[in-house]
Amino acid sequence: MDHAQGAEGGETMRPLPKFQYHAPKTLTEAVKLMDTLENAKPVIGGTDLVPLLREAACRPSHMIDLNNVTELNYVREEDGFICIGATTTHSQVAASELMRKAPAVVDAVSRIGSPQIRNRGSITGNLCNASPAADSAPPLLVYDAEVKIVSSDDTAIIPLQELFAGPKINSLEPNELVTEIRFPVPPESSSSSFKRIARRKAFTLSIVSAAAYVEMDGAVCFEGRVAFGSVAETPIRVPEVEELLAGKEMDSQTISEAAEAAKRSVAPITDVRGTAEYRRDMCGVLLKRALYTAVGRLS
């Protein structure tokens, strides 16, 4: 029997393409490998990368495993920022006491994939994959997240939105690594929430996802931020809705107005997971739920 085929004659398992494997132990070593090797690809969990390899959508000559670079595994507060190291897994983020200050992020990473994927996959990989449906993106966008990018000759910090160049396309140069995700420590008067709709609770891509952040002054929204996934070529913030929320009492009328504004502000497409009309309507539904949950968490 062909070892690439199941015992019941199921679908043939495609072999991985050949590549040379590297396991650096320091960031300096990893950066040097990225700079000197042709067609090198970094990997952390591999939960997005391995399917691409099997489909021959990605054919690296060298694979650089970052999991032994222990200096990249952390969640910590530093200089007014909450910082997440590149190899930190979804499960580690979800379990962090510090991340309770950003509940929308915990909402998202707690629902990504199966427990096995959450134990192996990282937020960094989820973001660098640049899927419009990346669940970690909307909550990080509403927290004004940034990413730290390191290469052999430069270190840069850019807004998270600039990492996304298009569907499944990031803006990284071939020799660059994302080493950290960070966002300002949220004030105590703030909260957030992430909501999604998918065909199953956790095991498939979101048809639509929404994140909402509110910073309150009593019953009034001092600042509101809104982001969506799966409704554009990249995860997006929606300034029109944010302007509507600012300075308003967070009652049912304001939340309903925000939901209607969200539906007018997005231009989703129809694909195998859902129609444009359904996605647009669900933007309003999910934003309502996210806003009510975010405000409720402050009571």
Short description:
The protein is α+β, with helices and mostly antiparallel strands and 299 residues long.
Here the CATH topology of the largest domain equals: Uridine Diphospho-n-acetylenolpyruvylglucosamine Reductase, domain 3
β-sheet strand percentage: 15-25%
If classified by CATH, what would the architecture of the largest domain be? 2-Layer Sandwich
Rg, Cα atoms, Å: 20 Å
Helix content: 25-40%
Mean pLDDT: 90
List keywords for this structure.
299 residues, alpha+beta, Uridine Diphospho-n-acetylenolpyruvylglucosamine Reductase, domain 2, Uridine Diphospho-n-acetylenolpyruvylglucosamine Reductase, domain 3, Enolase-like, domain 1, five-stranded antiparallel beta sheet, four-stranded antiparallel beta sheet, 10 helices, globular, disordered N terminus
Describe this entry's structure for a reader.
Helix 8 packs antiparallel against helix 9 (252-265) and helix 9 packs antiparallel against helix 10. Mean pLDDT is 90; it is low at 1-11. The chain has 10 helices and 14 strands. With 299 residues, it is α+β, with helices and mostly antiparallel strands. The chain folds into 3 domains: 1-68, Uridine Diphospho-n-acetylenolpyruvylglucosamine Reductase, domain 2, CATH 3.30.43; 70-184, 2-Layer Sandwich (Uridine Diphospho-n-acetylenolpyruvylglucosamine Reductase, domain 3); 190-296, Enolase-like, domain 1. The strands form 4 sheets. The protein has a 5-stranded antiparallel β-sheet with strand order 4-5-10-6-7, with no helix packed on it. The chain has a 4-stranded antiparallel β-sheet with strand order 11-12-13-14. A hairpin with a 6-residue loop joins strand 13 and strand 14 (236-237). The chain is globular, with a radius of gyration of 20 Å. The longest helix is centred in the C-terminal third of the chain and has 21 residues, at 276-296.
